[in-house]
Specification:
By secondary structure, the protein is mainly alpha-helical. It has helices spanning 31-56, 74-97, 100-119, 125-145, and strands at 3-5, 8-10. 60% of the residues lie in helices and 4% in strands.
Length: 152
């Protein structure tokens, strides 16, 4: 039935009004962060392995007669970099496999990477700041969105 308002007829809608329902949470939520964390670990792991091989081979890339605080041999730092690069690659595949172990292992490896970037700050300030920022983003992504999506 039309209603009267100030002498004019207003039609009543014939379709019923529907309540708004929020969309269902997707299992894909946060998968971009997981992909980002894994890709960063693959890139950093590859770069650390290349850097470590260059250090082991005493490449001319490094400054001659450089002094180091803890370990005085460049080849030793190279082997440490190769080992850490392998850990980063393992973390990437562990994250992509899902589960809590991959999440916490990735957070641990990213935390160690942040600390190592802090230690190289005097030698490579721009690279260190970039590595710290990426490490923080990886930790955030794994802490907030890591692990398997809840079953629905």
């Amino acid at each position: 039935m039309p209603t009267m308002t100030n002498g004019t007829q207003t039609p009543i809608p014939t379709t019923p009004m529907r309540a708004y329902t929020a969309p269902e949470p997707s299992a894909e939520k946060g998968m971009g962060w997981i992909l980002f964390a894994g890709i960063m670990f693959v890139l950093l792991g590859t770069l650390n392995i290349i850097w470590g091989i260059a250090a082991i081979g005493s490449s001319s890339f490094f400054v001659a007669n450089a002094s180091y605080l803890i370990i005085t041999d460049l080849a030793t730092w190279g082997w440490i970099a190769v080992g850490f690069g392998a850990l980063e690659l393992l973390a990437a595949f562990s994250i992509w496999a899902g589960g809590r172990f991959g999440r916490w292992f990735g957070i641990l490896v990213a935390g160690v990477g942040i600390v190592s970037a802090l230690l190289t700050m005097p030698a490579y300030p721009l690279w260190s700041l970039t590595a710290i920022a990426l490490g923080i983003l990886v930790v955030y992504g794994l802490a907030v969105h890591g692990g398997k999506a809840p079953a629905m």
